[in-house]
Amino acid sequence: MSHHDESSGTSAPTPPDSFLLRHLGEEARRLARTARAPEATTAGADPDVLAALGAAVDELAPTLLAASHDLSEHPEVSFEEHRSAAVLADLVEGRGIDVVRQAHGLPTALRAEVGDPDGPTIAVLSEYDALPGIGHGCGHNVIATAGLGAFLALAAVADRLAGRVVWLGTPAEEGGGGKELMAADGAFEGVDAALMVHPFTYDIADPLFLGRRQLRATFTGITSHASAQPFMGRNALDAVNLMYTGVGLHRQQMPPTDRVHGVVTAGGERPNVIPEHAEMLFYLRSEHPEGLAVLSDRLADIARGAALMTGCGVELSWDEAPAYLPVRGNGPLAAAWTTRYGERGRTVLPPDVVPRMFAGSTDFGNVSYRLPGVHAMVRITDADLSLHTREFADAAVSEEADRVVLDSAWSLAAVCADWLSDAELRQAAADDFAAAGGAVDVASYFGEG
Fold first, then answer.
1. For the packed helices 82-93 and 140-156, what is the interaxial angle rounded to 10 degrees?
2. Cβ(275)–Cβ(218) under 8 Å?
3. Mean pLDDT of 257-262
């Protein structure tokens, strides 16, 4: 029941009951007590190198934590991360390492390299864009500094690495598809594997992330006086209404792996004028690339049907920002992460412990369909906090988040060292990637939608 104030004619929304979140959290904690993710079975890096990486992270700790808090205090949204990129680039250059600023065609992208360019190459990724209004409510300050710390630690032992490490500062993950734009400019050419972490409320090496597309449906009608001559108009807002209803009805036939959510971005100017222009923006998500393609076709049919029923025209515009593919896991790399992060006192969970409905999307999915990769989730809070909230932004600069920055920096560096030094691990990761379908032409996967 809504809370209605008869004197003002206003009402407040009814708060949702959090019983399902509590239930799912309790179930995940029950499973976590006995579940363990697979660990590495190959030799990995020289213990002396791992120890040197630990010493380097310890020395970097004050710098990394200061940077994490600085990014949190000065959040910048997608494609506007000029200060954030400069802060990170300055830290790398302060260690005597050249940085390419405005890398791969993006003003706030970064690139640096250390090691032997003739050997195998692994990339470590940093994100640093924030959310409008709520700052680092997705914890990208943790992502940025953990990736930076791993790269700088590896730089300290670069002469002992049997290959190359590339650090990429990737802007605009929050809807802008920065990694895909960088990939189109060759960011991952010559790169054989890629790693990054993302803060969360669980530790997971191989999390579920859904693919995502954007659809803007623009309906064109005919304006007329809504009272005197409504029969002379064609109502574009009616088409929006029918499409929204059609999508809602379609949810009964959608598999549980799919999601659709949309907003009305234009719906008319005055009630006495039949709207000749109205539009909607939808996000479509699916666990499988094929499912996302099927869902795309279904939404296009619903839009055309709404236009037909109202006598309106419709224009469909797909993926104003690049489409995101789901994240494709890599078993051997995930096992290497589980082992190394476990050495920092962490217990990494297998993916079937955390409820599968807790799934968003990331442009790292596009990377993972180009080459083997890991997008590990790292727990920065015990509370049942949601991503994309002010509370999560606060958690991203907590004492626990600071510990996670350092633990993640060492673990990312250690897995890179393992992969570079261990031909068996490299082959296992490559074989796993090939068995999952190998490299996909991401840029043209959905064609014209």
1. 20
2. no
3. 95
